[in-house]
């Protein structure tokens, strides 16, 4: 699949989420969606990002947006992550990486000369009609949630 761009329709998904049940684009239709992809539960950057989105959750709600974090971690890991850090956002589990691939965030990465496949930290702001309004790639966690909130408010 070619890389997604702003103005394109957001790929659909229906995935297991924290606490049981599923979350899907169909369930979220009519709302602005902040869909952020992160590598791994309970790692330093991912924790900063999840805690920051949680701290601003009420403001996202006031702006008519719902925040969904997604990683390849299983639901059980999401539940532990949420409990440990008292998170207040939805975490979706894409263990087969099909949605990560559909959004183009499952990429070859390298560290210390070793290459491997992993999640490129990215955020997609999806408008209430299901189109991608903004994309942030190779996100730095600190301060990112506030940047996204400002973009949500401008929609």
Describe it:
It is a single chain. This protein has about 160 residues and is α/β, with parallel strands linked by helices. It has a single domain, classed as Glutaredoxin. About 30% of the residues lie in helices and about 30% in strands. The chain has 6 helices and 9 strands, in the order ββαβααβαβαββββα. The strands form 3 sheets. A 5-stranded mixed β-sheet has the order 5-4-3-8-9. It has a two-stranded antiparallel ribbon with strand order 1-2. The chain has a two-stranded antiparallel sheet with strand order 6-7. Helix 4 (about 75-85) links the parallel strand 4 and strand 5 (about 90-95). The mean pLDDT is about 95.
Short synopsis of the structure:
This protein has 155 residues and is α/β, with parallel strands linked by helices. It is 32% helix and 29% strand. The chain has 6 helices and 9 strands.
Question: Would you give the CATH topology?
Answer: Glutaredoxin
CATH homology-level superfamily: Glutaredoxin
- Apparent shape: globular
Strand tally: 9
- Helix segment tally: 6
Q: Uncertain segments of ≥5 residues (pLDDT<50)?
A: none
Oligomer: single chain
State the distance separating the first and last CA atoms: 27 Å
What number of domains?
A: 1
Q: Strand share of the residues?
A: 25-35%
Report the major sheet. Answer: 5 strands, mixed
What is the C-alpha radius of gyration, as a whole number of Å?
A: 14 Å
Strand order of the largest sheet: 5-4-3-8-9
Mean pLDDT: 95
* Helix/strand order, N-terminal first: EEHEHHEHEHEEEEH
């Amino acid at each position: 699949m070619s890389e997604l761009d702003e103005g394109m329709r957001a790929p659909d998904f229906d995935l297991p989420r924290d606490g049981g049940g599923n979350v899907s684009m169909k369930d979220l239709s009519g709302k602005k969606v902040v869909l952020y992809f992160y590598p791994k539960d309970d790692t330093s950057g991912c924790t900063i990002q999840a805690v920051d989105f949680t701290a601003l959750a009420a403001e996202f709600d006031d702006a008519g947006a719902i925040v969904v974090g997604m990683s390849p971690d299983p639901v059980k890991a999401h539940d532990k992550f949420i409990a440990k850090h008292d998170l207040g956002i939805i975490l979706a589990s894409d263990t087969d990486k099909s949605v990560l691939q559909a959004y183009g965030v499952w990429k070859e990465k390298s560290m210390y000369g070793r290459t491997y496949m992993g999640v490129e930290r990215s955020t997609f702001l999806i408008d209430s009609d299901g189109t991608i309004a903004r994309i942030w790639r190779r996100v730095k966690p600190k301060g990112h949630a506030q940047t996204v909130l400002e973009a949500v408010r401008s929609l």
